[in-house]
Amino acid sequence: MKKALVCGAGGFIGGHLVKKLKNEGFWVRGVDLKHHEYTELPADEFIIGDLTDPLIVNKVLDISFDEVYQLAADMGGAGYLFGGENDANVMHNSGAININVAKRATDVGVKKLFYSSSACMYPAYNQEDPDNPNCSESSAYPAAPDSEYGWEKLFSERLYLSFYRNYGLNVRIARFHNIFGIEGTWNGGKEKAPAAMCRKVSETPDGGTIEVWGDGLQTRSFLYVDECLEGVRRLMDSDFMGPVNIGSEEMISINGLAQLVAEIAGKKINIKNISGPIGVRGRNSDNRLIKEKLGWAPSATLKEGITKTFIWINEQVKKQK
């Protein structure tokens, strides 16, 4: 039986990954600062620990795992990542985790390691036009991410590739583009745009008003978590190292996203645009490379994923009332 370690297993994507790996027949150890908030995970072992501590990393990475998935990071939505108040923690905590994991994985002879990078590492100067952003993998340099979060992701990509070149660590790197879905953070300030919109629409009566940061014309693409993990597993089973985009090419404005959620909810909702952190003006996945290397790309519509997510978040909102 193959053995896998999921770092960040108590988080949104990590929790879904644990379930997927177990369904595929892996023995799975998960590690995180906390247990998953919304679901009971089927991991064979789950260790509570802080991966910024090398002693914890040595404890959880005590064997030559067949596959390690490094998803652990100091993470949140736009309000958390782009406001500026959390920059030092984001860079220190995520950087320390990756430095520790890269070294220890090399020392114990991990057979294959996946690192989840982010589209936030792409240059801000290529994402100023909301209708025509350039996020091809080859556009990463000259580097100019719009946030410290993006800089840390770029640094960690280079870290893992350095361990490959110097020590033979067999790595796979993907740049995630706004992954969303059920069983993820939906309130409290760390939620991302799809979850925030679903919560706001759920909590607002028909004919009411919700607030959207910025002018709402900024664009993004959003990928449902099931397709994200399909891409991750295909990348791990391939000979391609990456970095490669894993995201949707279906771009939408943030106001458009709010309107889509309202339509799914069967409500008429007014939008009030307010000042707030928004990141770059436009971002969209460029899927030419993933199609070339893996013969696959995400294909589900945004509406399908948002529908599932709204139903789940609507249930959470009702539970709190």
Summarize this structure briefly.
This protein is of the alpha/beta class and 321 residues long. Helices cover 39% and strands 17% of the residues.
Quickly give the CATH architecture of the largest domain: 3-Layer(aba) Sandwich
Enumerate how many helices there are, as a single number.
10
* Average pLDDT over all residues: 96
Report how far the terminal alpha carbons are from each other: 45 Å
Structural class label: alpha/beta
Largest sheet: 7 strands, parallel
| Sequence of secondary-structure elements | EHEEHEHHEHEEHEEEHEEHEHH
CATH level 4 superfamily of the largest domain: NAD(P)-binding Rossmann-like Domain
CATH level 3 topology of the largest domain: Rossmann fold
Which range best describes the helical content: under 10%, 10-25%, 25-40%, 40-55%, 55-70% or over 70%?
25-40%
Beta fraction: 15-25%
> Any idea what the radius of gyration is?
19 Å
How many structural domains in the coordinates?
Answer: 2
> So what's the overall shape?
globular
Strand order of the largest sheet: 3-2-1-4-5-6-11
Sequence stretches where pLDDT stays below 50 over 5 or more residues = none
State the name of the first-level CATH class of the largest domain: Alpha Beta
Please report the total strand number as a whole number: 13
Explained architecture:
The protein is of the alpha/beta class and 321 residues long. It folds into two domains: 3-179 and 222-246, Rossmann fold (3-Layer(aba) Sandwich); 184-221 and 251-282 and 301-316, UDP-galactose 4-epimerase, domain 1, CATH 3.90.25.10. 39% of the residues lie in helices and 17% in strands. It is built from ten helices and 13 strands. The strands form four sheets. It has a seven-stranded parallel beta sheet, sandwiched between helices. Helix 1 links the parallel strand 1 (3-7) and strand 2 (27-32). The longest helix is centred in the N-terminal third of the chain and has 22 residues, at 87-108. It is globular. The mean pLDDT is 96.
